[in-house]
Amino acid sequence: MAYNGGPMTEAMYYVLLALMRPNHGYQLMHAITEVSNDRLKMGPGTLYGVLSRMQKDGLILLAEDDGRRKTYQITPKGEHALRIEYGRLKALIEDSSILREVDEDE
């Protein structure tokens, strides 16, 4: 199933964010934890499942495989999808301005 531009999973979003700089699996797990401000800690099983699906969808590619490590990088399609998701999330926050108004009224 190809990525259709709908809402991303949290794992997909943070993998793409972390891959704004190419990384291999072990580094990528740490980069995801860092860019998510420790909210998301991804184990190898989850990470490699997400990487495999995203590679099939053309959002990332295998940049290098030296036999020991596989280095992944985001593709232009992946960066475009990440920016669309960022805009969607930003709009959700902006649409929630009513919460601020309710808080101010109390």
Description of the structure:
The chain is an alpha+beta fold and 106 residues long. The chain has a single domain (10-105), classed as Arc Repressor Mutant, subunit A (Orthogonal Bundle), CATH 1.10.10. Helices cover 58% and strands 12% of the residues. It has five helices and three strands; from the N terminus they run H-E-H-H-E-E-H-H. Strands 1-3-2 form a three-stranded antiparallel beta sheet. Strand 2 and strand 3 form a beta hairpin. Helix 1 crosses helix 2. The longest helix has 20 residues, at 76-95. It starts with 9 loop residues before the first helix and ends with a helix. The mean pLDDT is 89.
Number of domains: 1
What fold name goes in the CATH topology slot? Arc Repressor Mutant, subunit A
Order of helices and strands: HEHHEEHH
Quick one: how many beta strands? 3
Structural class: alpha+beta
Helix count equals 5
Strand percentage lies at: 5-15%
CATH superfamily: Winged helix-like DNA-binding domain superfamily/Winged helix DNA-binding domain
The share of residues in helices is 55-70%
Q: Which sheet architecture does the biggest sheet show?
A: 3 strands, antiparallel
CATH class: Mainly Alpha
Structural shape: elongated
What number is the mean pLDDT?
89
User: Could you tell me how far the N terminus lies from the C terminus, measured between alpha carbons in angstroms?
Assistant: 47 Å
CATH architecture, by name, is: Orthogonal Bundle
